[in-house]
Amino acid sequence: MESRKKWYNDANTITSMIIFIIILIIVFSQSFALGRNGSLELFTSIINHNSIYLFILIYFILIKFYIGKRYFNYLSAFLIFIYFITTTTSFLTLVQAFSFNSTLDFVLNTLLLIYLVHTLMRDTRIWREFYLSKSPFNELPNDFMFYSIIVVTIILLAVNLINTVVISGVIITILDTIYIILLARYIYLYRIFLDKKKIDVGDTMNLDDIKKTINEIDKSVSKTVDDIGKNINDYVVEKGIDKKIDKAVEATKEAGKEIGKNMKQAAKDVKDSLDGNKKGDK
Fold first, then answer.
1. Who is most buried in 16, 162, 223, 245, counting CB within 10 A?
2. Tens-place pLDDT, residues 218-256
3. CA distances (Å), origin 276, targets 262, 270, 271, 282
4. From CA 252, how far away is CA 247, in angstroms rounded?
5. What residue ranges of the chain have pLDDT lower than 70?
6. What contacts 130, CB < 8 A, 6 or more positions away?
7. Which residue blocks in the chain are alpha helix, DSSP H?
8. Which of helix, strand or coil describes residue 67?
9. pLDDT at 258
10. Are 64 and 15 in contact (CB under 8 A)?
């Protein structure tokens, strides 16, 4: 009997949990805001923190239904746009108020944005028109991206818990962390789905493909060099150039020997002449 799929490998379960966690985040945030400063704080909370969660909540609710599945690529582009805005905001925060917390937040949002683009866009026209298959981030394995986000999220959780002094902040921070982990798992499972369906897998050149291509180029160059050498050798043999070269070499050797012999004779004649002159002087 086939074993049941574990909950963390079930995309439907993950999306349901994300919806539930986002609702909790919104409800608790509004409750805490209303309890502190009344309706003004409530309105500010909706505009700032919870507006992002509201849009993401709409995304995950829609993909549960037929209309969301039909326009999934458009909804995915919308989700990526939301995280682009979030990443830009976190970068501006980092520039204005540099801290370990803001740095981790920017790194986390950047990783999520890269992960979203290189996963949700793979089955779209944007992927092909903008040649995203050539992006170097495609070389990063699915497991690496998922666990990198988990590690950064856990570190950010620890830092936020240290800096948080009220119970409401602790609850929201923990819920935010759970949401990020579930979102990363959702992206992870969708990439596995794309890999199984072989969607745009062939467009991505990984390290093994690069090594294979280099080896093929090396073999091709070696073969070309060997062919050129063979062709030159055949041409030399066919035209008798090798024999002519051998004759030229032999002729050069003979000429060298003759020149050497003549030089020795000339030296001997000069020596004999000098010796004769010396005897005449005496």
1. 16
2. 565 456 556 555 655 665 556 565 565 566 556 656 656
3. 21, 10, 9, 10
4. 8
5. 1-3, 33-49, 198-282
6. none
7. 11-37, 39-47, 49-62, 66-70, 72-96, 100-120, 125-129, 142-163, 167-196, 207-238, 241-281
8. helix
9. 64
10. yes
